[in-house]
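Protein folding task:
====================
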Amino acid sequence: MTGWLTRHPISLSEEDRAGLKDVLARCPELDTVAGHIRDFGEILTDRLGVTLPAWIDAVDASQLPGPAGFALHLHRDFDAVTAGLTLDWSSGATEGAVNRIKKIKRQLYGRAGFELLRKMILLQ
C-alpha cells in the first residue's frame, strides 16, 4: 500500500489506481496522509523549501500522529531542513567516498592492519 501512496497516480496501472481510489474513499485519514506525502514529495523534488512552513502547518492542523510527529522533528532543525530543501549544494560525493572506505574496511576486518587498508583504499 505504501507503494501506492508514494508513486504518482499516473504511473499506476488501471487496477492499482482503482484500488487506491477505493482505499482512500474508505479512509479519509489515509487520504489526508496521502495528500501530505505527495505535497512533501513535491517539496523534495522541486526544491521548494520556502513552502515548508505552510506544509508543516497543514500537517499540524490535520492532527494525525505520524505526519505530525515527522513535522515536529523537521521543525526542531528548521533552518537546516529548509536549506537542504532549497539549496543546490550536496555532500553526495563526500558521502560516496566515505561509504567506499567503510566497505573496504568491512571487507578487511580482522585480516590485516592499517598498511593494507591504506593500500586498498589508494588502489581502488
